[in-house]
Amino acid sequence: MSSQNNIYAQVILPLKLKMGISYLVPLQLEKRAVKGAKVRVIFARREYIAVISELTDNCGDYKGRISEILSVEDVPPISEKELRFWQWCADYYMCTVGEVYRAAFTSAMRRDSAPKRVRKQKPSEVDSRELYQLSPAQEQAREEIMKSFAQGKPALLAGVTGSGKTEIYLKIAKEITDKGGRVLYMVPEIALSRQLNDRLEAVFGERLLSYHSGMTPAARYSAYSKIDSTPDGEGFIVLGLRSSLFLPFRNLELIIIDEEHDSSYKQTEPAPRYNGRDSAIVLGQIHSAPVLLGSATPSFESLYNCSSGRYSLVRLDEKFHGATEPEVTVIDTIRESKAKRMNGLFSQTLLEEIESVTGRGEQVLIFRNRRSYSPLVQCSVCGHIPMCSHCNVPLSYHKNRGELCCHYCDYHIPRSSVCPECSEPGMTEKGSGTEMIEEKIREILPNARVARFDAETTQSKAEEKRILREFAAGKIDILVGTQMISKGFDFKGLSLVALIQADSMLAMDDFRANERAFQLLRQLSGRTGRGAARGKIIIQTSLAAHNVYEAFSSGEERLYEQLAERQEFGYPPFVRLIKLTIRSADRNRLSDAAARTSMGLGKIKSAEITGPFAPVVDKVRGEYILQFWIKLPRAGNAAAKERIAELAEKIEIEIRSVTIVADVDPQ
Ligand code: ADP
Ligand code: ZN
Asked: Residue 294: CB within 6 Å of ligand 1?
């Protein structure tokens, strides 16, 4: 049926499809159906907005009836650069371009009205609010960064918290936006973007655009189309999370990756399972845009890239306000317990310190990386531990809700003191979470004003803001919280940070556990001592001799010995790691799939395979889990990746009800 003059479009659909799908371009749409154009098509009886990836004069071997493109969207086409970036993401992170497109667009495409053209701004509207004058140390760092950019290299700004990194980013970014260039300022989490928003707005005014998943689809769409339709020559800065890498940038002249070490840059679910930091480096290359990474605690990956000469390392060692590093005390809870110097969860030393700090009108942060009242409950008569019915994890006790809850799925049941196994009233709490710490500290210090900051108490944005505002205003003496409190916050009255049961952050089954623990300690210590007094950190642990604490108290060099260890034992960043996860609700099919995977992987010469093994939590939401770790050479591994992907696809098709997921550079 194809006549000589027909034009066919191969399109990318927002689906996990490997092959391209072709459509006939009707004559009246030929002018507008260019490469990159967004078009409406029907696929498998559903309408989609697809992207034209290629135009051809034939439809290949396809013999069936070819459908027509229904219409072309009235928006600028996807650029060649964007298509290249999508393709890179798909190749590197082992997924399909359709999955990348889905991540990039579905949220932004859902809209009810046509995009509004942005009103052209007049240069009189350019903001006149001033940036701070950089200090000599900041200015020197800025010059080193610019020198690195001139050499075509990304720069890593390693500067302690409060050294004024943000002000350097702003200075460099402002110069670019003033000249009509575009800047992407990436942060790992919404909470951080909220904190930075005001500062950026003060500097960039209307030229600031925010973009993250916390915004309504309409607001996101509006930001997306502003970026898409702002005329050349008008500068702006986008403050966003990792998903902002997929915005339709033209004339991108700088990418800033703040808190580059943060594991939240990695998307684990769904595909593309990409790392925002690493993908930003590639996006920078595609746009020939310089990339600036910043952190108080750089990742091993980035330090490795500095040592190999790929990035330049720029250090900024002094705090802008001149505060000193906090004093570190490690408290051995086993020894204190023997000496009868523990009062429940707290050592005498810590309680005395809390009292003296709050007595002076200063503030305390108590960190514990477990929310809930207790991570599990157990019957003291028969030993029974209530588990989730769908996941292989104990249920956590949430006292204020009177419930036992699973942190992996939505399962929850009322808490009873009677054991469901032996019917004796023996159920008791084991271990302590933030909720218990909050309760106990209130009991011991009834006059202190105590609040809790974790996923539970900050479910509403308003509540989150209220707690932070009250703590900043000195209306809360003691704040108990999880990881969420370790990031970014600048509290002037805070002079003591305490970690309770700090060893739980070391017990993780993870080669990055030490790096993470060290980063967390540094992040927490960065929160103290912003005011006049020298800050203090008290670490309560049953593993007082652990080398992470030693490295933390004595300087980071000790930690970087671990980089040599990773090289010796073949861990990232020295190898490319792929985590292959196999899931199935059916145990037999799971082990069958694992055996076949094992055999298939064994044939890939350059791959070093560990597994199959059951992860710490080996059943989630009713599915059993087995994993493989696959180590590949850092470079030249494309063929091996391809074979792994093919193997996984084949097994998924042949053994039904099995899911195989490849996670490249897992966190
Ligand atoms: P970092 O990003 O390294 O943690 P910030 O940029 O947030 O540090 O700076 C810490 C504090 O010092 C902030 O309150 C900031 O406003 C202030 N500050 C930094 N640089 C300057 C400067 N050049 N002039 C005045 N204040 C500054
Ligand atoms: Zn569960």
From this structure: no
Atom of ligand 1 nearest to the CA of 199: 16
Protein residues within 5 Å, CB atom, of ion ligand 2: 388, 390-391, 406, 408-409, 411
pLDDT mean for each 10 residues of the chain (667 residues): 75 90 94 96 95 88 83 94 97 96 72 42 50 93 98 95 92 96 96 87 92 85 90 96 94 96 95 98 98 94 93 89 82 97 97 95 94 96 97 97 96 96 96 97 96 92 89 95 82 91 81 88 82 83 89 72 86 96 98 98 96 96 98 95 96 96 96
Cβ neighbour number for residue 104 with a 10 Å cutoff: 25
Q: Where are the alpha helices (DSSP H) in 360-488?
A: 434-444, 461-472
Q: Which of 435, 489, 446 is nearest to 464 (CA)?
A: 489
Cα→Cα distances 107→38, 82, 226, Å: 15, 17, 15
**Nearest residue to 14 via CA among 49, 42, 53, 58:** 49
Main-chain phi, psi angles of 82, to 5 degrees: -65, -45
- Cα 591 to averaged position of ligand 2 atoms, centre (Å): 22
Number of H helices, E strands in the chain: 17, 30
How many angstroms separate the alpha carbon of residue 158 from the centre of ligand 1? 14
- Confirm or reject: Cβ of 166 under 6 Å from ligand 1: yes
Whether the model clears a pTM of 0.90, i.e. scores above it, the answer is: yes
Is residue 495 within 6 Å of ligand 1 at its C-beta? no
Residue nearest to ligand 1 atom 5, measured at CA: 164
501, β-bridge pairs: none
